[in-house]
Amino acid sequence: MAQTLLAIVLVLAAAHALPDLARLRDFSWLKRWLAQWSGANGTPTPWLLPLIVLVVCALIQTALAQVLFGLPALAFGVFVLFYSWGPRDLDADIEAVLKAPDSDRRHAAAQGLRPVPSAEPLPLQSTPLVEAVFASGLSRWFGVLFWFVILGPAGALAYRVVQLLARHPAFTAEIDAERRALFERAALILDWAPSHLVALTLALATEFDAVIKTWRDYHAAHGQGYFTLDLGFLGALARAGIDADVIAGDGYATDVDDPMVELADARTVLRRILYVWVALIALCVLAGWAG
Fold first, then answer.
1. Do 115 and 128 contact (CB within 8 A), yes or no?
2. What are 71-111's pLDDT values in tens digits?
3. Average pLDDT for residues 128-143, to the nearest whole number?
4. CA pair distance 18, 12, nearest whole angstrom
5. Alpha helices in the chain (DSSP H)
6. For the chain, what are the domain ranges?
7. Is the dihedral of CA 247, 12, 159, 123 positive or negative?
């Protein structure tokens, strides 16, 4: 766990201090695999790709753990986590919207916040902006981080591969509709646990009562219970938490109808959630040492 914490801290530092390294997150090899891997009848078999990535990555990290006190395994973990992060820099995308000099360029910059690049254009309104930022935060940060902690580098990379195959147009175009639906379901399954942890941390980082009430009301209105793959609750909770945060005056303004105010506060809250996650991992490391 200590090695996991160190890898996370190093990746967060690198992502902040060296944003240009994001260009190294090149998944063109995945598209080449999709083009080459086909059955006898020409039907793609992309479901094998995440499984192979998971197995190969797990074998590498297991082998490296036995060499030089695990230092190569640490380096491998840092590389894979950084590679799986993003791929786009969420902080940079938010900053581009907030600093855009006019409405046209602000609207163009806002499209980089969409969790699914092929989705409908994102309007410059508080609700869709906040929902998009939290959905992107889940797929770019928290989903990767969760599976890295659970399964190590293999988990982080497999999560990213499934996300790309399920939602990125460069890859979904190579897959038939039936398999796209399977990958989308797999992506939702992988997002289920981290999305609930993000929701709980959001309640702790903003207005607890407002978030928990919205969470209960959402599930009561939809009548599906908590153990479903309907993750739309996260957008509803994000709106409630950010609105409460802005009204409380935690930012520089209290206007919940100003999309730029809400977007700036959403970035602040996402950072708080990320810091809480890292702090909890650090506590687990300290508890392990104490034990």
1. no
2. 888 999 999 999 999 888 999 999 999 999 888 999 999 99
3. 94
4. 10
5. 2-17, 28-36, 48-64, 71-84, 90-98, 103-110, 126-137, 143-151, 153-167, 169-172, 177-205, 208-222, 233-247, 259-290
6. 2-290
7. positive
N-to-C CA span, the chain: 13
Distance CA 116, CA 169 (A): 8
Q: Name the pTM for this structure.
A: 0.90
Report the sign of the C-alpha dihedral through residues 184, 187, 193, 198, in that order.
negative
Residues whose CB is less than 8 angstroms from the CB of residue 156 and which lie 6 or more positions away in sequence, other chains included: 80, 81, 84, 144, 145, 147, 148
Cα–Cα dist 133/91, whole Å: 10
Q: Are 134 and 270 in contact (CB under 8 A)?
A: yes
Give the Å distances, CA to CA, from 175 to 35, 51, 255, 279: 10, 17, 44, 40
4 class by beta-carbon count within 10 Å (0-12 exposed, 13-18 middle, 19+ buried) = buried
Separation between Cα atoms, residue 157 and residue 269, nearest integer Å: 26
